[in-house]
């Protein structure tokens, strides 16, 4: 008899501990008075993140690297960007000539603030993506160059 009472007590405790209590919470919402329509100004423009390469990175300085060349060993390239939106490009065609070609001019930022366009360049790509201590040469359409040699188009500070 004690065993039956003990078993019944254990089953009761087990069932009672598995019972889930549900609680009801009542939330009251205060009413808000209507707003006059002439006090609301609609702005249909999206709020964009104001951080970009132009205003968030220390982009001014000299960037160097050797970019691929169709008829030489490579083009040893140095681009210096100045705070006054001017640039200097120095290029040496390796295995072809010892002369260093130099061009000066101004550059402008695209609307994203992450790409510069070198104005007045002759016979070379003019768009570069500005990254953290890097300039990445872009193709004619302004897109990143892909493929096996894509890392060769990155100039480093």
From TrEMBL:
InterPro entries: Cu-R_lipoprotein_NlpE. Pfam families: NlpE. The keyword Signal applies. Keywords: Signal. Gene3D superfamilies: 2.40.128.640. Residues 1-22 form the signal peptide. This is Copper resistance protein NlpE. It comes from Pedobacter frigoris.
